[in-house]
Every structure is written in structure tokens, then in C-alpha cells.
Amino acid sequence: MLKLSSYGGNPYLGVYCVSNDSLALLPSDAHQSLVEDSERSLGTEALKLTMSSSHVIGSLVAMNSNGIVVTNQAESAEVRRLEEHLPVLKLEDRLNAAGNNILVNDHGAVVNRNLRPATVEALEDFFGFECVRLRVAGMDTVGSVCKVTNKGGICHPKATEGEISKLSEALNVDFSPITLNYGSAMVGACIVANSSGALVGDNSTPIELGRLEDALHLF
Fold first, then answer.
1. Across the beta sheet with 23-27, what order do the strands follow?
2. What is the pLDDT of residue 219?
3. What is the CATH number of the domain that holds 25?
4. Could you report the average pLDDT of every consecutive run of 10 residues in the chain (219 residues)?
5. What is the domain count for the chain?
6. CA gap 170, 36 in Å, rounded
7. Which of 10, 128, 142, 193 is least crowded, fewest Cβ atoms below 10 Å from its Cβ?
8. SS3 sequence, the chain?
């Protein structure tokens, strides 16, 4: 299911929220309407929390069905809450905004090419598959300019054919270059999505939503 929403009037939902196929993480101060929109569109339980005492959950957390990677600034109580649901790994790197720097589904991962080799190795051990280093449309923060589920993916509209091919190969789904939120190329920041649905910034146009439905196979 596809639904338009916002976080306190901010349409960049991917900055504040993240989901896998069974759990959505929302800011602790999320309005009940956002919780209901999330549960309805994604078909998951919604867990409200902070991350590193902040509300930018989507930027600081990357997750698939098997595990959650969080910023190394995450507090112990925050990690314990997540560990009630899935294993958790702290991203011990200077580039510790996990959601911005890791694009992951249940098939593979693409990561910021500037992550330390030891960090990539730790991620590969945690997820159990290869993490491919990649820049997309001149941007290293692959989680900000792409979004992937187990059914499809979207990316920055200026991604090259070679980059799209590498994304598709690494994550085992087809990728489509689109915009959201009335022309924003930072599509990862505009959306929360899983295999069942998507919660999209409410500035997005009907044309953008149609392309999104096709790309993520939301029928």
C-alpha cells in the first residue's frame, strides 16, 4: 500500500523513519497519525524511539529482516530496545550515520565507498553477504539517494546506466531512477518502504507516485 504522509509537516520521511518487512522505527515524538499511516502502509509494527538521543532515525539506522546497524553514538538503552527485535551492530566508523551510508535489503548491500575496510568487513560478517562500495550520481551517501526493498529499488535520477546496473546486481532487484517530493533527487530521504508498501513525503506528485509504484511493485 502507498500512502502520503509527513513527520510534523516535514515530507522527508526517510530522514526520520526506517522499516524492514516486520518492523518500522519512528521518532519518539511521532504523532499518532504518522504511527497509523506507517502501520497501514507498511503492514508492520511501529516502534517509537530515539537514536543517539535524536529523532533522525532514518539517517542513523540501516536494517533488513535479519539485523539492524546503528550509529556508534547510539545509547545503550536504545540498543537494548532494538535487540528485543533483532541483532544490532554499531557502525564503528567516522562515517557512522548508518542509514545515509548503507543501502541494504535481504539480498545484499551497497555502502559508502569511503567506509574503512574493517567497517565493511564487519558489515559483511553481520549481514552474511558482500557489501559493494559504490558512488551514485556523484554522491557517496547511497542511503540518501536510493531506497531498496526485497522487490525493487529507486535511485537518484542522474544515476548512470552503469551505476543502476551495479545497484541491481548487488541487491538482486531492478532499480529505477525517479524523483519524489516534487522533484527531489534525494529519494532515499523522501520515503520509508518495505516489500508491502511505502510511506512517501506528501509533496510527491501523482506522476512521481505512479513511477514509484512501478519501481517497487506496489500493486
1. 18-19, 23-27, 45-49
2. 75
3. 3.75.10.10
4. 96 98 98 96 97 98 98 98 98 97 98 98 98 98 98 98 98 98 98 98 98 94
5. 1
6. 33
7. 128
8. CEEEECECCECCHHHHCEECCCEEEEECCCCHHHHHHHHHHHCCEEEEECECCECCHHHHEEECCCCEEEECCCCHHHHHHHHCCCCEEEECCCCCCHHHHEEECCCCEEECCCCCHHHHHHHHHHHCCCEEECCECCECCHHHHEEECCCCEEECCCCCHHHHHHHHHHHCCCEEECCECCCECCHHHHEEECCCCEEEECCCCHHHHHHHHHHHCCC
> How far is 171 from 200, CA to CA, in rounded Å?
22
pTM (two decimals): 0.97
Write the CB contacts of 161 (distance below 8 Å, at least 6 apart in sequence). Answer: none
Q: What CA–CA distance (Å, rounded) separates 63 from 186?
A: 19
**Which residues pair with residue 19 across a beta bridge?**
24
* Nearest partner of 147 among 3, 49, 20, judged by Cα: 20
Enclosing domain of residue 182 = 2-216
How far is C-alpha 29 from the chain's CA centre? 20
Nearest in space to 154 (alpha carbons), one of 121, 86, 115, 200:
200
Q: Which three cell numbers mark 5?
A: 504522509
